[in-house]
Amino acid sequence: MLYTMIRTVTIVSELSEVPIEWVFEHYLNLPEKLSGQDVKIKSVFGNKDRNPSLCVYYSMTKRKYMFKDFSADKGGDHVNLVKELFNYPKATQAIMKIISDYNQYTLTNGTHIIKEFKVRNKYKVSEYQLRNWTIYDQKYWMNYRIDSKTLEKYNVTPLKGYKMSNDDGTMSINGLYLYGYFTKKGVLYKIYQPMTEKSKFIKVSSYIHGHDQLTFDKPYLVICSSLKDVMAFDKLGFKNAEAIAPESENTLIPENIMEKYIDRYDKVCTLFDNDVPGIRSMEKYKNKYRIKSVRLKLEKDLSDSIEAHGINNVRIHLYPLLTKALTGTIKNIP
Length: 334
Hints:
about 20% strand; Dna Topoisomerase Vi A Subunit, Chain: A, domain 2; DNA Primase, Chain A; six-stranded antiparallel β-sheet; 3 domains; four-stranded antiparallel β-sheet; about 325 residues; alpha+beta
């Protein structure tokens, strides 16, 4: 006697019946299944990311997966992800699509099952090793006209390697181009690995780049996008302005700190990357703190502009833009 095996699939009708992990895995085409870890990928919202900027993470406060796309300035839960991806004006439309797509998925693949879910503690830098400067370091930094004196001033030191640890264990990272950013007291606050595509920056602690080097005896303050751009700005030789950078271009400097900067300087302006995320970030500073922005339309950022066009050409282009933003007038470079 021949028996035919028929597989039955439960059709869901409520959003609560759809695993949140499946929504992120399915619509973002994640390279791995979510089981408590964070996953970072390139933006899916049309931005041409050079580095991954969209993070899918487990929120301990909301007790579910969420997402944040720093380059596109979008974020929220799984419903908001689908709403943003398909430009739905209402969340109900996103919910209907999720339910429909999940039912279609289960007809072919069966119910989505998470075998083991364990919220991982984030890896943190637990150890690092210093090394001596090499000719390779010199070649890299001199591309941006940043010399050893400037690197020493801003407490940038080459690293032989570092270790990242969490409850699951420890992993060691070594490489030729690894640099530690230190405070004036010698405390590591960030690791910079420019040749790594996935994670160029490893945050160790919160810190405003260049703050230790401020003298507060100049009339103008320029907020750049990174420490590398702060050091590049230093090499331009503007005698009446100094520069800082937030933790990241997508992070606003806290209001209590910005108030002090605005109070100490005659004028403050931003000089972020010449791309969509940079322009959007400058607009945020303008709206919140009422400070003007400068857009240098040469390369993506200030240091890349110096690499491509040289210090003198960048200075010639930047000077009238800065004077207009900081003084309200247009001047030729002296």
